Amino acid sequence: MSIDKLDYEKLLAKYSNHTEAVELLKQYRPYLEMIPSIRRSEESLITMPLPVIKLHKVLLGQINQLSPILATSKTILLPCDLAYLMCDPEWKIKMGGEIFIFIHRPEEDLSDLLARWRQTQVVLDHDYEWMMPQYYRHIISEGAEHLYPLFVLFSQTPDRIKRGLIGAHLPFVIAPIHQTNFAELTRLDTPDERLHQ
Which of 11, 63, 67, 113 matches a 20 to 30 Å C-alpha distance to 23? Predict the structure, then answer.
């Protein structure tokens, strides 16, 4: 049974929501423990769907071995589905490692899924900063030293993908798919409601 695009879109929307992101990380405890303050998790965990970064000093080409052609910066869309950034709720600075979520996409096999993680590693091996959402523009956003992947699979994801991720020592969780009450999601997303949770 193949992955349905609507199921993928539902998970992308679901795990873009702060509350659901914490629930996702509860399924893999080492990452949950990276959140600076669970009680203030709305200020400690930044969710970024389809994240964008700015690379600094990008090599465009070379005239010869001694003369590289550098661009000052280049903006890149990362091949992951979401990035979760940790933030000190007191000092309002990004801290710790960065968690990258890879949701199993329709028609994607093991090599495609792994390649997205490997491409993310290669891109983030350079000096970079995050293109932060407007709400978090005040947070210092340089790149981190440690990158952590988490793969989100479906119950219908083929066993070969699960075996491959286990063999590569990469963590994954199986996402439950159920109907989301959009009115409830909207209520949780309003700033006033988040402050009183």
Answer: 113
- pTM, to two decimals: 0.82
Domain ranges of the chain: 5-51+79-195
Q: What is the pLDDT of residues 153-191, one digit of tens each?
A: 999 999 999 999 999 999 999 997 654 444 444 333 433
